[in-house]
Amino acid sequence: MDILFEEHKIRSHDGTMLSGYDYGGSGDTLILIHYLGGTAKGWHPVIPFFKSHYRLISYDLRGHGKSDQPDHGYSFEDTANDLESVMNHFEINKAHLVGSSYGCMIGLYFTAMRQDRVLSLANIDGAIINDSGEHGLYDETLDEHLTKFEGQLDPDYESVEEYQQVYQEQWLPWNKERADYIAAYEPRMKENGKVGNITTGQTMEKIISEIYYIDFLTWYKEVQSPVLFLPAEKENHFQKSLKFIDSAKKDLPYSETVVIPNTTHLMMFDHGKELAEAVFKFHSKIPVTEKL
């Protein structure tokens, strides 16, 4: 199915140009915030399921897709300013936010710091466990953590065809949704003549560094909006995430956890319908007082 949208160029607070996408629809506005290294097109598998209930907006994060990739500006306050610029451009006062992975972190920070502009937040396997700290995933310094990714953040491919072939072999479970995304993805041509991801290794490293020492629980303490947690059942840290979510929920006025069976990290590519249904059902159950 072809996904129809209007593309908009949006200037953020520091002059960075962002690419925003209006998919139409009616009802409350729902803004989709993609994962690290992805693009707004990653949401295409769920657009048809959401569109009957919401006005849908997405955008390429700075450093991703068709948005600018500046040398600086990757703090979470910068990402909040970007999201605010997107909302202002589309004349959106309040919206439901749905994030995937890194997009959840952006949505969480925005919700904590700009409470008056958020109707609810849905976190798809993101901001549900810290990277570091007492209950984090890793027991290592940031430098040690980054060393593990050496050569992996911006690999070279000989051609677009090789790029596509590698993803088909490694991005499992491979299916039509993943194939459509990779076919539509336009990798960058590097100075060395090779093909690479749109998001450079330097940008990836800057964002990973911003994330590493954050305690997301401190942000959840500030959140007053309803929050839906959608942890991926097949991820190795699933049980740790459930414990973290229980800790986060203690400070939230209204929240729910939904586990869709057999889900992996980027569940929009293989459980799009179930994902959209979970979000819509959550919104329909939010108490009226929480919606005001």
Automatic annotation (TrEMBL):
Gene3D superfamilies (alphabetical): alpha/beta hydrolase
AB hydrolase-1 domain span: 29-271
Signal peptide: none
InterPro entries to which the protein is assigned, alphabetical: AB_hydrolase_1 (IPR000073), AB_hydrolase_fold (IPR029058), AB_hydrolase_sf (IPR050266), Epox_hydrolase-like (IPR000639)
Keyword tRNA processing on entry: no
Superkingdom of this protein's organism: Bacteria
Listed GO MF terms: hydrolase activity
Keywords: Hydrolase
Pfam family for this entry, one: Abhydrolase_1
Species this chain originates from: Fictibacillus norfolkensis
Lineage: Bacteria, Bacillati, Bacillota, Bacilli, Bacillales
Name this polypeptide is given: Alpha/beta hydrolase
Record SUPFAM superfamilies: alpha/beta-Hydrolases
